[in-house]
Amino acid sequence: MSNTTKYWIWLSLAIGFNNEKQKRVYQTYNNIIDFYNGGINEWRLLGIFTEKELIALTDTSLEKAQSVIDKCQKLNHNIVCIDDEIYPEKLKNIYAPPCVLYVWGNLPDFNNRLSIAMVGTRKATQYGVMASHVLSSSLAKLGAIVVSGGALGIDSASHIGALEADGTTVCVLGCGIDYEYLMVNAATRKNISKTGAVVSEYPPGTKSLPYHFPVRNRIISGLSDGVVVVEADEKSGSLITVNHALEQGREVFAVMGNINSRYSSGTNKMIKDGATPVTSYVDIIEAFPNYQISNEDVVEIEKTSRNNSSINSIPVKHKADVELTDTVSKVYHCITNEPIHVDNIIASTGLPVSKVLQSLTELELLSLISCQPGRMFKLV
Length: 380
Fold this sequence. Notes:
This protein is of the alpha/beta class. Helix content is 47%, strand content 13%. It is built from 17 helices and 12 strands. It has helices spanning 5-15, 21-28, 32-46, 51-59, 62-75, 89-92, 126-141, 154-164, 186-195, 212-222, 238-247, 265-272, 281-285, 295-312, 326-332, 342-349, 353-365; strands at residues 78-81, 100-105, 115-119, 145-148, 168-172, 197-200, 226-229, 251-255, 276-278, 340-341, 369-372, 376-379. The strands form 2 sheets. A 9-stranded mixed beta sheet has the order 1-2-6-5-4-3-7-8-9, with helices on both faces. A 3-stranded antiparallel beta sheet has the order 10-12-11. α1 crosses α4, α3 (32-46) packs antiparallel against α4 (51-59) and α10 (212-222) packs across α11.
């Protein structure tokens, strides 16, 4: 934290988030403190602020900014500002970069490492979960940073895949890091913070509001060299991230999917429209020749992928001679021989969290499934 941190927080609190004028201030002044000391007459002469913003700049106190810093210190969260050395250059160059990032964990070296965003539907199919997990795991093993949004479905599978590969993943939230958002994923976010980072442009205590998430997506793509869409229908919110990626000059990829699945309709259309089709992690890394990846690493990944393929080829066998309620049966038939995370079971079934957890307990008691480390479940 530098001596300018308080002033950048003050600016974001005054004129709001997703405001490109923050970047204008950064480009105009060598030091944010000089801007603060300029006062309203100088701010007006810049000709970029509305009267409403000028009043907000005047009325917002540094004490309010300091209280945000105090909260972050109590939470043991870091604050990274746009003038800090570790602030990612690729994010700084987007249209409206956040002047402040609140960070739980440690921001990885985005300037010198390949970073790939993995996005898609919250209602992922088993295929989508598997594809996300395999791709993110393979990319993480090669040293890439996996970026996603911490939601159910594709996001969760991507974060978990990177974590299980002992890699680095970053979760970008549309609320304050301390806000009780999607608590079923709380353990995953905690694990992410140990080796990567949970990030938000919103200060502690900021609620999760619907309009925050489309705005947040510009940061997901902004932190990334490329965006991979795994599963999405033609009206998916993931396509907002794609639009940001195109505006920011990022590579866009789409995982080829089942032509009969609504959750592949968006990705298949993207491929028709020019997105790079993905059938393997190699399709992604080949688009970034500036990042050095050794052949030995690729060989090791291929070996692991073959092993996983042999596991996935085992026929799925659900017992037919057991009497289950419709809810428990729906959960049961979502589980396969390959371990699946509870978040993805919730996303696939569309059932309330309490119903899924209750059903999993019942299935374990019947010895139909087993619980694996990391809140994963598989058929017995």
